[in-house]
Amino acid sequence: MAVQCPSCGGRMVFDVSAQNLLCTYCGNRMHVQAYEQNNAAQYSSDTYNANLYTCRSCGAELIAPDEQTVAYCAYCGGEAFLYQKNTPLTRPQRIIPFQQTKDQAKQAFENALKGKFYVPKELKQAEFLDTFHGIYLPYWNIEAEVPEREILLEGTKNYTRGRYDYHEDYVISADIGGSVSAIQYDASEAFDDTIANEIAPFERRDERVFAEGYLAGFYSDRPTTRPEQYYEEAAQVAIDSVYKEIELQTPGVNLKLPKAEGQKAQVGPYNMKTSVSLLPVWFLTWRRGDRVAYSVMNGQNGKMAMDLPVNRGQFFLVSLIIAVVVFAALTVASGFITPKIAAAAAGLFLVISSFTLQRELRKIYLKENHVYDYGDTRSSVKKEKRRVGNKSHLNLGGAKNGLIFLFMVIFIAPSVVLSLLGGFMSSGKLIFVVLTVIQAILSIKIVRRTNGVARKTAVIPAILAPLILAAGLMIFRSNPAADYWYYGTAIGCLIGMVVNCLSAVNYFNYLTTRPVPNFFRREGANNAAD
After folding, report:
1. Deepest of 284, 313, 326, 367, by most Cβ within 10 A of its Cβ?
2. Are both 461 and 329 inside the same structural domain?
3. Do 231 and 330 sit in the same domain of this protein?
4. What are the backbone angles phi and psi of residue 276, rounded to the nearest 5°?
5. β partners of residue 50
6. Higher pLDDT, residue 426 or 358
7. Are residues 435 and 319 in the same domain?
């Protein structure tokens, strides 16, 4: 879309800091609304013209700034020659202009990386940070109408006054009706719902009537999902809003809410109304081979969401240094740790490492099958329901911290905790029976999860761990006198833990990156708001 300066005919861009149009040639400034009024004859009330291109690598369609010969694709990190295809597009109703500048996005990303030692070094390089791109993403605004009616709810109130406890029962009559608006869902199939949830919400205070001038100098996407995909969840948002309002009007009373089907029958939102708004997002894409990682920032309030893979070499180097230091400390304290305690402790933490691996696989299964991405239609896996206020996105930062904690407890906890339980741990046969059974269950879960994801390498540690524990159980059953049998068991468990940890780190990197998207077969797009 070309926005030309009325003074010199040069290219104008939207200046975020000044919130107006700026001519890149003569420096002339102009309000977006004034430009719209002066050029009203060029535009239809229902459509506007823009340069639309399709990325040759992934098939994503983006609206590019005017006068570009090479377009940047935020979804796969690639560049493609821009076909000068001027396309009429359905006009959105509303837009929130960018409030955060590119420099603010770069600074926020740099601040977020402080204290993170294991991220790939190129993520901190200035030339990489300069690839932040501003993109307006389409969002469905859904308004759910709630019928006017009277509903009855039961409630209880418990309190203490003086020396007496009181219990009160209530029957609450509430008049409901009206509409619940500003329920937002991203309308781009290319933009994962889990990322959209992390940078939400966008506040309506900066919302404006859509005008083409706001797009000048920025990329934008168009709706490629149907709003009907979100109606069920939007209805639940409306239902929860009604009950929350009743709770606010009855402080101290614990309401007895009906079950899900009863809530729908009681509140029953219907007549969903939809419209499209364009919302601002700063996009940074890191690509390695056939995997990409996204860092995005809410262009209105600066809230960030980041995919941060681990630099494996640096991670294991630091872990090796810690292991050497702890091993030296344990050598001094070896008189307090018997061979049987060492073997039992190693078996215990082998099971802990398997549990960690199983949790990583579950997260990968949810992400790879787009279980929480309601706008994605490519997966046949049933979407899991999410309640209002429930963080359905994956807490990747916590997963990485779990890996680091795992490495610490493998070497430190046996000497600190299990040495205090020496008398109990000396009869390790029962302990190995329990550990072997638990590990067998975990291995079955790991194999089942592995069948649901593309990467199948977790089968190896799933088979290795129970074999090691079974061998340890046989050794404890025979109760040999030589200590090297128990030390050998501990070493075997240590090898199993290392294999689990290697697999967990590899899967974590797999979890924090995404396959290069393929949108050549985009189906079900509905670009018109009902």
Report:
1. 284
2. yes
3. no
4. -115, 135
5. 87
6. 358
7. yes
